[in-house]
Every structure is written in structure tokens, then in C-alpha cells.
Specification:
With 191 residues, the chain is mainly beta. It has 2 helices and 14 strands. The strands form 3 sheets. The chain has a 6-stranded mixed sheet. Strand 2 and strand 3 form a beta hairpin.
């Protein structure tokens, strides 16, 4: 073997070694995927846009409830608003949703089906330990009963679990109808 052949063999072996090293152990993190939860529901379903909604799961505390109220306004997922999870006796409840690390957009879906005016249900929500809703009033935000309203937040998950806590406020119980967790990008910090 001449020097040129040895040089090519050495370079080929080096490139192969670098490729194998760059591939690591073969374990890669799964790409972030969407999770939609129909809070309080006992069965999963597919909405008008073809999105799959899971039955209520990954939750600690609270009480499931279903209603037959007619929804005012439109929603691609009207069935979501016929079930809910609420914190009975002004207690908190939490969803601990397993997801891949990454950036997500979280939509919390609400419709007020019980109280009949503003100021009659006030509560808070925190996501991954950060308060995102304080003194939230579904009726006031939606403009009435049985009207869907969504609150949207950008979050980063770094430990494989998205934690959403629904916290009692000054009156009535915290509640939620649906949770949508969709891969997204976080906004750039303001300089």
C-alpha cells in the first residue's frame, strides 16, 4: 500500500468515526406532538378539523361534569364544551401532561355553563409554575354564558411534563373544558 492509499483509508476511517460519534448512542428525543384533552369526558373524539381529542386524563383532583347546554357561537370542537373538570369545594386540580421537551402553544378552552353573570366565578391558572391567569372570569371574558373562549400561552417544557394548575379564586370553583397542547415556537425575548 502506498502513502496515497493509506491517506485515503485514514481519512475514510476518520470520517466514518466522526459520523458515528455525531449519531450518538442512537437515541433521539421524539419530536413534539399535539395533545388535546376533552376535560371531564369519558371518551375520545375527533373534531370538525380532524383533530383527535383524548378522554380526560393526566389529571389529579377535581371532578368531571357533563352538561347539555347549547353552545352560542361557533367552535371547531363543540363537543369539548359539553364536559368539564372543576375544583369542587373551591379546591385546585392539575394536569401533568407527558410531552417531549420543546416549545408549545397551550390553548385553554372555556365556556361558562353554570354562573349567570360576571364576577360569579373567579380563579387562576399556572403553567409550569408561572401564573398565566389571575382573577379569571369566564363569563366576563366570553361575554356571556355558553360562549366559547380560549386563552393561549407559549410555554417551554424542559422536564418532559407540562404542568397546568387550576387554582381557586375568590368565588366559585376553577374549571376547564378543553386543553390543547400544540408544538410551537416561543416568542423572542424583548431586548
Amino acid at each position: 500500500m502506498n502513502a496515497k492509499s493509506l491517506s485515503h483509508l485514514f481519512l475514510s476511517t476518520l470520517l466514518l468515526l466522526l459520523l458515528l460519534i455525531s449519531m450518538g448512542s442512537g437515541r433521539t428525543q421524539a419530536a413534539p406532538t399535539s395533545v388535546r384533552i376533552n376535560a371531564g369526558a369519558t371518551t375520545s373524539y375527533t373534531d370538525n378539523n380532524g383533530n383527535a381529542w383524548l378522554a380526560d386524563q393526566f389529571v389529579n383532583g377535581g371532578t368531571a361534569y357533563t352538561n347539555s347546554s347549547t353552545l352560542s357561537g361557533s367552535s371547531p370542537a363543540p363537543q369539548v364544551y359539553h364536559s368539564e373538570r372543576y375544583g369542587q369545594s373551591k379546591s385546585s386540580f392539575a394536569y401533568n401532561i407527558p410531552v417531549s421537551n420543546g416549545s408549545y402553544t397551550v390553548n385553554l378552552d372555556f365556556a361558562e355553563s353554570y354562573v349567570t353573570g360576571p364576577g360569579q366565578r373567579i380563579f387562576g391558572v399556572s403553567i409550569n409554575g408561572t401564573q398565566v391567569l389571575t382573577n379569571f372570569d369566564i363569563f366576563a371574558a366570553a361575554g356571556g354564558m355558553n360562549i366559547p373562549v380560549a386563552k393561549t400561552f407559549s410555554v417551554a417544557v424542559t422536564n418532559g411534563t407540562l404542568n397546568i394548575n387550576f387554582l381557586p379564586g375568590s368565588i366559585e370553583n376553577p374549571k376547564v373544558n378543553g386543553i390543547e397542547v400544540v408544538p410551537g415556537t416561543l416568542p423572542l425575548p424583548v431586548a
